[in-house]
Amino acid sequence: MRNGINIYEHEIGKKTTIPITVRQLEALIRIAESLAKMRLSSFVDEALRLFHVSTFASASSGNLTGIEGFITFDDQKEVTRIEKQIRRRFIIGSQVSELAIVQDFIQQNYSERTIYKVLHAMIRRGDIQYRIQHKILIRIR
């Protein structure tokens, strides 16, 4: 495409631009991506194979522990116990200091990291919310 324009520019003696709409440019990009995928499909297949092998090997050996989203079975049990206790002890609408919750569970020999993990998961789901400068937690549901 550019070669034809170069010849034309040389003939008329000045630089021109290629008139193209945004839609045409997007279509050109999609075509180029599709051609690249077809041409590199063997490399993509190999990359996927390597990803699966390394991920499954790490997961089966326990090396993914500590990476966000991956926790051990024991940690999962502890998370479940903490969440059940929070739900049982704090009725919907009750307010309690985050510090009090954390200290109480630490006295019960739960890890601080796991306690905060549970609290943040419950906040993300909308079960609890922060109030008063992130010092007080209120149970929503």
From TrEMBL:
Domain (MCM5 C-terminal): residue spans on this chain: 81-139
Ranges of residues in domain MCM AAA-lid: 14-46
Superkingdom, taxonomy of origin: Eukaryota
Pfam families: MCM5_C (PF21933), MCM_lid (PF17855)
Protein name: DNA helicase
Species, as recorded: Rotaria sordida
Lineage: Eukaryota, Metazoa, Spiralia, Gnathifera, Rotifera
